[in-house]
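Team,

Forwarding the record for the chain on the shared tracking sheet. I've put the sequence and predicted structure together so nobody has to dig through attachments.
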Amino acid sequence: MKFTRLLVPAIFALSSHAFVTESAFSQDAPDPSQTFIKSIDALGSGCPTGTYSSNLSDDRKAFTLSFSEFVAEIGPGIPLSDARKNCSITLTLQVPAGWQYSIGTFNYRGFMDVAAKVRADHSTSYFFQGTGDTGTFSATSTGPVAKDFVYTDKIGLASVYIPDQWSPCNVDRALTINPSIRLTKLAGAPANVQSIITNDTVDGELKQVFGLSWRKCGQTPPVTPPTTPTPVVNPPVGLTANGVYNLISRHSGECLDVKDHGLGNGALLQQWYCTGEDHQKFKLVLQAGQWTLVGVQSGKTISVESSKTDNGAAVLQWDNQNAPNQGLNIGTSVDSSYTVRFKHSNKCLDVSDVSSTPGALVHQWECVNADNQDWYFRPAQAFPAANTEFQLVSRNSGKCLDVLNHGLYNGEKLQQWTCTGEPHQKFRVVVQGSEGRFALVGVQSGKTVSVENSSFESGATVYQWDFQNAYNQMVTLSPSVDGSYVVHFSHSNKCLDVAAESKVDGAKVQQWDCDSKSNQDWYIKQ
């Protein structure tokens, strides 16, 4: 790959809409001639001493910084440290006595030439010195891509990024801006892969035509013009705002899962055996008028990579940016499940390749009314503690899983029976490996709940047998209705089922195709 360095300006433009009308603004703003940029300083790996220059306009209301080292690169012979560059820029604004100010708008411009299997990240944080509030902005692109980029962001003490605060009276308040660019090799990238991202020039302007928001010290903020009331946005039917849910694929019975328990931006989403851990829990949150799903463990929002609209675009987690690729339209579907559509593309949250395999990636795809696009939203609940004694109680009948005739031997069949609290109705959940599988071991017999002859057939008998580390003896659990669980056998992915939805003592317990009926739901009770 041959790189061509392009000097593309990255513009920092201090501007905003005032809180008052134009006529009032002329009366209630300070003299523009007394408002100007006093100083600019820069420090960082992207702007070491001697590698940047500054130029302030004669009226002190515009500035330009030119860099020669604000370039991130990877490739043969390039030090690893060159994959990330940053520059801390500090701006001091002259504010006339008796006035306070707020708000500004910034544009970040540059050029990237990024190979396949490489990700380019641009991030910026900013704050007014002396405050505890920090604004953040981030964007990402995954190669192959070669383009000029323009990112626009708004900062200020009365913006979505920094809460409503104002500069102190009669004190100069420095604004610190920390842009960073970074290249990361992804899995499968060739050892000799080459990529570049630049951010070579920063221009800025304070234009009175848009103005800053001003108020006199000691005054309350100017009265804003009447606005149309924000419409009430109700949560999707059957769901609760700020409710925490496991999303379970109707196709596979597996949970939406953050791959490798990832905490950072860009961690991919997949399906995996339900484990009850926080990286499989998501909060339904209303943000900037749109519904989003926010990971409980990471605090990051489910997003479509780089706002792509094509089929197969990756679904991952990212800092909330109130962007359409994070907004969701959640609608009811088959059997109390839901479809999850991304607003920017109108495409569905989809398990790739209609797979039932744990680890299958979740992406966006054209909505086709398929069960791999249907998701049960189950209120998140704690999984049973390993090796603790439990009774499994049918949600349909209220009766307990029971070993026929209190049997102690291999081959004794399972049934349902009125709960008595005796040992032959008690089981332990024993963890099998690290993938989310369990064995259900009888307390009285020490034998494991198993499917006879490892059968794949619906209606196959469930009995107890010595544990043989076989998949017909391993189960996974999925949260279901009202705090119950569905028990899936690992070899067949069929469910522990009370035959014929019976409610009588002695009804056969078997495996059956999972159909979301109450005779396949089990409360796990101590």
